[in-house]
Amino acid sequence: MFFILKDKRTVSLLNCSIDSRLLTQLQVLERKEELAQFESMDCGKPIDEANWDMDDVSGCFEYYADLAEKLDDRQYSPVELPMEQFKSNVLREAMGVVALITPWNYPLLMATWKVAAALAAGCTAILKPSEMASVTCLELGAIAKEVGLPPGVLNIITGLGTAAGAPLSSHQGVDKVSTNCLLLLNSNRRQCCSVHSAFQRINSELLFEEMRRI
Predict the structure, then answer these.
(1) Helix, strand, or coil (residue 4)
(2) How far, in Å, are 44, 115, 129, 205 from residue 37 at the CA level?
(3) Cα–Cα distance between 59 and 82 in angstroms, integer?
(4) Residue range 148-157: average pLDDT?
(5) Element (H or E) spanning 190, and its range?
(6) At a CB cut-off of 8 Å and minimum separation 6, what does 135 contact?
(7) Are 85 and 113 in contact (CB under 8 A)?
């Protein structure tokens, strides 16, 4: 289940221009109707709303593809210093392996918010969708493979929170955990994170704030 952690810097070896092209290709417009049908059947969402969600999914990948290109342009950006004899530049590096845990009510859309941000920032992602609605997230994995995303960059696991989510969020090879804030109310998960002194690695906004600053 955690085999990709052995090579946690896989995505960091890619430059952002490559990431942006792949993110653009991950847009689901060509399969919008099919994915909307899957979403509707999987979580009981009205088909019209599911179609709207697919439009938002496409827009999200396009948005983060644009941010990835801007991030590439800002690499090694100079920092002004009061003394001319010194020079300083900013190098932005990927955080590493991020675990992304999403709820059932917006399966693909909320997964896209996290996956697109993580990939644009150059991270390796492990997506754990809700056990109650994971079909479209698995389809996203198939699309990622079709467009040529390197193996190990986006990984998708399914299962109950106690069997998949808790071990993932407490694993020492995971650098950051992004989850819906309501999931933090789960006492078993909170206890698990506390035992491993890893609670500070959990953030319901993961990379969004960082990406907004670009």
Answers:
(1) helix
(2) 10, 21, 18, 29
(3) 42
(4) 89
(5) helix 187-195
(6) 38, 39, 41, 42, 107
(7) no
Helix 47-73 vs helix 32-43: angle between axes, to the nearest 10 degrees?
120
Residue 115 to residue 132: CA distance in whole angstroms: 19
pLDDT in tens, 36-91: 999 999 999 999 999 999 999 988 888 888 888 777 777 778 888 888 888 888 87
- Read off the tokens for 122: 């150059």
β-pairing verdict for 124-128 and 97-101: parallel
Cβ 137 vs Cβ 114: under 8 Å:
no
A 10 A CB-CB count for 130 gives 24
Structure tokens at 39: 């979403």
- Residue 17, pLDDT > 90, answer no
Predicted model pTM: 0.76
Which amino acid belongs to residue 146?
A: E
How far is residue 126 CA from its own chain's centroid?
Answer: 7
User: DSSP state, 156?
Assistant: E
- Which amino acid is present at 188? N
What secondary structure letter does DSSP report for 92?
-
Distances (CA, A) of 42 to 35, 137, 168, 183: 10, 11, 24, 20
The percentage of residues in the chain with a pLDDT greater than 70, rounded to a whole number, is 71
Q: Is the pLDDT of residue 15 over 50?
A: no
* Per-residue tokens: 160: 């109950």
> Rounded CA gap, 46 and 85, in Å?
63
Q: Looking up tokens 């590439």, which residue turns up?
A: 72
